[in-house]
Design a protein that fits this description.
heterodimer, A: alpha/beta, Nucleotidyltransferase, domain 5, five-stranded mixed sheet, three-stranded antiparallel sheet, 14 helices, 45% helix, 12% strand, elongated, B: alpha/beta, globular
Chain lengths: 317, 620
């Protein structure tokens, strides 16, 4: 049965005049303002169309007949049909956006707010702000954090970490059922040429480190550290010990010096961010929060690129 | 959108509700104008009763009858900002909803404005919240009121700032206080809590005596791990508030300036009271625009910041002790038969922790035996620590005072006390006079009895202090006059301490008010006040002459500023007092430093030597 098309989508020329260029939306000059987003995309239809275009739907050939076609939005706003053979595509299918019961517009608003804030958002705030219940908002935030972690892993470039500085940090305020006040989780930090990567450690046995490094694809990299216990535990990786004194004597432009400085500055910022966000994550969720913060930290100079990277990680429609 | 129905909702305002209520800038301007100017605003001609016409794409409204135009935000705090009204309303929504403080970076990104604009906007919104958040009275007949105090460390703080809180089931009152003395805290309780309330506090000493003031008071001794009493009363309620407050300020406490803390406390109070009805709180925030005088920062600040009422004394105790007890510097410690240390001029020192350990029959620690080092016990340590250095050497015969107090003076040592710092006691009851003299002697002072106020010495001793009972008669009036005239400090004592009486006496110039029977600790605590008087007497010959010479270089205005600095006022308080801007005060202070060629701490000393503090201390 052929679906009835809306009059607005039939007038494609006008439509394309209203909609922004996806490339411009993904790489704006500055961070996307939430209020601007709501003004430019006033309803679900516009937002679904935006997501469809951002995922490359506008130029996608029809999967059934292979011809270059025009995709028209149906009354069910998420569904787009090809004009040639009425093949239907869902704008949100295969993404985390279908994992929580929020509309496309609220999803976009949540993503922009999430990325604009430098500290973790609490589900109570999201529930109050979006007008949903706490369970839904928690679900949405969990999905979003998972996606950010996945994006962060995709953005990890082993070539950048051929020569990196390693450090460890005990993050204490972790919620552990039945745990005492001194419970915490160790985090392994790697500081490369331009960015940082952090992995939570399940244990601090000598065998845990090569597993992580092999998984990241940097098993054969050159490692440096100021922490003598870490150097001893990572003996198999041949971590070179450098003293803080040596680093302070080295010239400022060197990569190792900047990596060391970046890593040392990261831990207090991370801890303060978590404290300001009023977040005490569970032990098995700490990875998401770490990746979330590392994602923001690596985009410090270019906040506008965060949204583009996140949307691109959704994959093609 | 029917805003009246929306404002009655207990649910917080969501972004969808916001969009429905304020779809565009014109709606926001109209809402702002009609709430700031009054909903019933019509044309000046009452017969026509035609509504105003709004100009599109501008913030002005025009009356077609009288041809007058009105600006939408003219009567609000946002009159000087060019940010769109819709963005202002949205920023208010974020600041009212967000747990913790909305950072400037977040506001700037969400609204699409610069960080500089976001800083100004956040500051204005906080001021607006402070203006509509009125001070509340706490408690009621038979209702519990939880009272506690906490500390936060702010930008440039040497010591933490104390915040005092009172809370009932619905309302909260927070005050920044200069100290935790009983006088400070109990005065605030009297002012804020409704009489008949049931006070629940911890066992802090400043809360003692509330029963005598007529309060029903339950104390929980936390030091003995008594977290709740038999009826289930605990201080968990106010402890939770501290947790929220510290989390709210977390990550910012290093950045919040002393002068801005009141804004954050007001913001916190607004959000705390908004919990009852979050929806109503937001509508109240965007629809209430008090008159301009309500936004006066000085008045708003004084609602939470009580430091102006009890200004700090600039000269720390150690400096005063150094000045006053300089005559002790040459004194060598001597050992008595009882093992108590005495200074050559009669002041005595008690053997400290190491002495406590040396029980008869118990061998002393090797290290202790080798060094023979003794810690000087507090509070005498405060007074004489500078004279002796950090430690004093003593022999092996030190003994322990089981009561933890300086031991009674032995008859053999009586003549030694006669040479100590003299104080004067005037008490008509002979047996009480004897007791006072004994207690003062235990504190290392040499008391002299007086029969009448006229016999107070003209040339006072080192500690120019007079102890007298609060008799509430004409004799006391006369004593006050003479003490003020001759520059003596007056310390009163009474069996029944009434809050109002204490405040009255201190306001009249009494240096302290003690509870009878006196305890040596209380007397020693009050000695630091006495030191200030002693300092003036000791250094009057040299210090005053030098100080007057230095003061001669200053202008009249600079002397006024210096007098206020000596009084303990801060720059903003001096600015308010003299009717000039804070910046001008800072410039005056810089000029004073340059002219006197000294550090800021010494400036206060010069001011005190020049007698600038006496005018403020004895206004009468």
């Amino acid at each position: 049965m052929k679906r009835r098309f809306t009059s607005l989508s039939d007038r494609a020329d006008e439509w394309h005049g209203i909609m922004p260029d996806p490339a411009a939306f993904l790489a704006p000059e500055k961070a996307t303002a939430a209020l601007d987003l709501l003004e430019r995309f006033p309803d679900e239809r516009h937002c679904s169309r935006l997501i469809f275009d951002l995922r490359g739907g506008r130029t996608k050939p029809c999967p059934r007949c292979g011809s270059r076609t025009r995709w028209q939005q149906t009354e069910a706003v998420r569904i787009f049909q090809s004009k040639c053979c009425s093949f239907a595509l869902d704008a949100l299918a295969g993404t985390f956006l279908t994992q929580a019961p929020l509309g496309a517009r609220l999803w976009l608003y949540l993503i922009v707010t999430f990325l604009n804030r430098s500290t973790p958002l609490s589900s109570a705030f999201v529930a109050a702000h979006l007008g949903t219940d706490t369970r839904r908002s928690w679900q949405a935030l969990a999905q979003l954090r998972q996606q950010v972690a996945a994006t962060n892993k995709k953005l990890f470039d082993p070539a950048e970490f051929r020569r990196c500085y390693v450090d460890e940090f005990l993050y204490r305020p972790v919620c552990v059922p039945g745990g005492g006040a001194r419970t915490g989780i160790w985090l392994l930090g790697l500081s490369g040429a331009r960015s940082i990567h952090v992995e939570p450690l399940r244990d601090r046995m000598a065998g845990a480190y090569p597993r992580i490094l092999e998984r990241l694809g940097i098993g054969a990299a050159e490692f440096y550290s100021c922490s003598l216990p870490l150097v001893a535990r990572m003996k198999r990786q041949g971590v070179a010990s450098v003293s803080a004194c040596e680093l302070s004597m080295a010239s400022r432009g060197q990569q190792l010096v900047s990596s060391h400085a970046r890593m040392r500055a990261f831990w207090p910022l991370f801890r303060r961010s978590m404290r300001r966000g009023s977040v005490v994550p569970a032990r098995h969720h700490i990875g998401r929060f770490v990746h979330d913060y590392v994602f923001r930290y690596n985009h410090t100079g270019s906040p506008a690129a965060m949204l583009g990277h996140l949307i691109q990680s959704l994959g093609p429609v | 959108m029917n805003m009246t129905s929306a404002s009655g909702s207990a649910r917080p305002v969501s972004i969808s509700t916001f969009e429905q209520a304020f779809p565009d800038e014109e709606t926001c301007k109209a809402y702002l104008f009609f709430h700031s100017a009054g909903l019933a605003h019509r044309c000046c001609d009452p017969h026509t009763a035609r509504p105003l016409i709004s100009f599109h794409e501008s913030s002005e409204f025009w009356c077609p009858v009288c041809d007058q135009s009105f600006r939408a935000r003219a009567r609000t705090i946002f009159r000087s900002t060019k940010i769109q009204v819709r963005k202002i309303f949205y920023a208010m929504l974020l600041m009212a909803d967000l747990p913790g403080n909305a950072s400037v970076r977040f506001l700037a990104r969400q609204l699409g404005i610069s960080r500089r604009s976001a800083t100004g906007l956040a500051s204005r919104i906080r001021l607006h919240m402070a203006a509509i958040e009125l001070p509340r009275s706490i408690g009621g007949w038979g209702r519990p009121v939880w009272i506690d105090e906490t500390f936060v460390r702010l930008q440039g703080d040497i010591s933490s700032t104390c915040i005092f809180g009172m809370k009932d089931e619905r309302s909260l009152s927070l005050h920044i206080v200069p100290d935790r003395r009983a006088l400070t805290l109990q005065t605030l309780i009297e002012e804020t809590v409704v009489s008949g309330s049931v006070l629940i506090t911890d066992d802090f000493s400043s809360y003692r005596g509330l029963e005598r003031l007529g309060w029903k008071h339950h104390r929980l001794n936390h030091s003995k791990r008594m977290w709740s009493d038999a009826e289930g009363r605990s201080t968990a309620s106010i402890d939770l508030v501290w947790r929220w407050l510290k989390r709210d300020l977390a990550g910012r406490t290093g950045q919040i300036a002393q002068d801005d803390l009141w804004r954050y406390l007001k913001h916190f109070l607004f959000k705390f009271h908004a919990q009852e009805n979050p929806g109503e709180a937001y509508w109240r925030l965007i629809s209430t625009y008090p008159p301009a005088e309500r936004y006066a920062e000085e008045n708003l600040r004084r609602e939470v910041d009580c430091r102006w009422r009890w200004p700090r004394v600039h000269t720390p105790l150690t400096v005063r002790a150094k000045l006053d007890l300089s005559h002790l510097r040459s004194a060598e410690p001597q050992e008595s038969r009882s093992g108590t240390l005495f200074l050559s001029d009669g002041n005595k020192l008690r053997a400290g922790r190491s002495a406590k350990r040396s029980r008869p029959g118990r061998p002393k620690h090797k290290r202790q035996q080798a060094s023979g080092r003794v810690r000087i016990a507090s509070p005498l340590r405060k007074l004489s620590g500078l004279a002796l250095g950090a430690s004093a050497r003593m022999g092996q015969n030190e003994t322990k005072d089981s009561a933890g107090l300086p031991p009674e003076p032995m008859k053999d040592d009586k003549d030694k006390f006669a040479e100590g710092p003299r104080v004067q006691v005037m008490d008509p009851v002979p047996h009480r006079l004897r007791q006072v003299q004994q207690i003062l002697a235990r504190c290392g002072l040499s008391p002299q009895s007086l029969r009448e106020p006229e016999s107070i010495e003209d040339a006072p001793a080192t500690l120019s202090l007079v102890f007298a009972p609060d008799t509430r008669d004409t004799e006391l009036e006369r004593l006050f006059e003479i003490c003020l005239e001759r520059g003596h400090g007056l310390l009163l004592y009474a069996a029944a301490v009434e809050q109002s009486r204490v405040v009255e006496m201190v306001a009249r110039g009494a240096q302290g008010y003690l509870k009878w029977p006196l305890s040596p600790e209380e007397v020693l605590k009050n000695l630091d006040i006495t030191q200030e008087f002693g300092r003036q007497r000791i250094s009057v010959s040299v210090g005053q002459a030098k100080a007057r010479l230095a003061i001669g270089k200053l202008t009249r205005r600079e002397i006024e500023v210096l007098a206020a600095v000596v009084e303990g006022l801060r720059s903003w308080e001096i600015a308010a007092k003299l009717g000039i801007s804070k910046r001008t005060v800072e410039i005056h202070r810089a000029n004073i430093l340059a002219k006197l060629e000294t550090a800021s701490g010494s400036v206060v000393k010069i001011g005190v030597y020049a007698g600038l503090d006496q005018a403020s201390r004895f206004p009468g």
